[in-house]
Amino acid sequence: MLERLFNLRSNGTTVRRELVAGVTTFAAMAYILAVNPAILSDGTGMDRNALITATALASALITALMALLTNYPFAVAPGMGLNGFFTFTLVRGAGIPWPAALGIVCYSGILFLLLTVTGLRASLIRSLPHELKVAISAGIGLFVAFIGLQNGGIVVHNDATLVTLGNLRQPAALAVIVGIILAGILCHRRIPGALFLTLFAITVAGFWIPNASGFGSLTRLPDSGRWISWPPSLSPLFLKLDLNWFWNHWRQAVPLVLTLLFLDVFDNLGTLIGLGQRAGYLDQEGNLPRLGRVLTADAGAAIVGSAFGTSTVTTYIESAAGIESGGRTGLTGISVAGCFILSLFLGPLIGIIPAAATAPVLVVVGISMMQGIRTLDLEDLSKAIPVGVTVLAMPLTFSIAEGLALGFVVHVGILLGTGRGRQIRPLSWILTLLFVTQWMTR
């Protein structure tokens, strides 16, 4: 049945490999079960326990839908950055009640779906030149690796230089370095589930590694002493979105809906291209097959997420962890969805995984995503400059969408300035105008 449903043999994979890849992806993105409720509840007053359930259920449902519709190993969850926009721009910045903010998320998802049905969103992806598509993958890789180094305490904040080297005498930082080395050895030897084994090894070793304070270990047993618990009720959030606020305050609401749509479209666009590039799905023109199905599932994610009571749900760059572990079909996604369902009951167990265990996985995944850039001929600086700007801007602005926008505008500007304006498509002109307008009106 699994062979008929997911075409495992033709994709060069096995059930075991897909399940391991799913667990690896889930382990790399499991932090969202704690981070998303913390951001939303602290900034909006939403019920934190209900947000844990909403995050897990929305992620499981849409990831399963993505798997069955597309047969791709792409995992979906509430987007980092998008939850910050929801909290700090919509609720705290604009003073919008959180049910109305959920309504704005829903309306942005509906517009997202309309763009998909009309084919405009697919045209956006096809409008990107091949060099930028590869740069997006490399930029996301650098972004992911940077996050891993930050989470592991290898790179820390510095007032003078923005970032600097962390305290490598800390046991956690040393554990991250050991984890990177271990992952590199296992990947080189092509050990199945190398990244998951790395995460497991550091988590177990963490019971004997002291934490930063020196009191207690890096990995700690659940405070409650229990490994299993019943999931919190979803009732404080389920279907609490306010769809009427938009119509009563449309002058204020329309720009916010369009801004959220803009962020979601281009953040997700970059993620899909990056994942497709790493998995080898892109065709000779750099386009992702079955793109319409991917976009349909993705567009519906925001609508479903708002109904469950969470901010915009989108495809996750951490899906690359499962792809790197050999995941190639929707069975990986089904495995991820199953892990999210189990997480509702295994919250205490998931909570023991330290950042020092996930950090090496993110670093190695990010580096692997950067390898595609070797296929580009960068001797022509008119091509190399937009690539370099895109790759650097994503981690430095901490935004996939902003990095893509900067690289795209630079690309169009160079074409125009070098007498190749005829190569600029009408849609590219429109995108450039939108990017620049957004920057100027902030």
Describe this protein's structure.
The protein has about 450 residues and is mainly alpha-helical. The chain has 2 domains: about 375 residues, no CATH class; about 60 residues, no CATH class. Helix content is about 65%, strand content about 5%. A two-stranded antiparallel ribbon has the order 1-4. Strands 2-3 form a two-stranded antiparallel ribbon. The radius of gyration is 21 Å and the shape is globular. The model has no long low-confidence stretch (mean pLDDT about 85).
Describe the biggest sheet? 2 strands, antiparallel
Beta-strand percent range: under 5%
Q: Report the radius of gyration as a whole number of Å.
A: 21 Å
Shape: globular
Count of the separate structural domains? 2
List the helices and strands and how they pair.
Elements: H1 2-6, H2 15-29, H3 32-44, H4 48-70, E1 76-78, H5 82-91, H6 98-117, H7 120-126, H8 130-151, E2 155-158, E3 162-165, H9 171-188, H10 194-205, H11 244-248, H12 250-279, H13 291-308, E4 313-315, H14 319-324, H15 330-343, H16 347-350, H17 355-369, H18 381-397, H19 400-417, H20 426-440
Antiparallel strand pairs: 1-4, 2-3
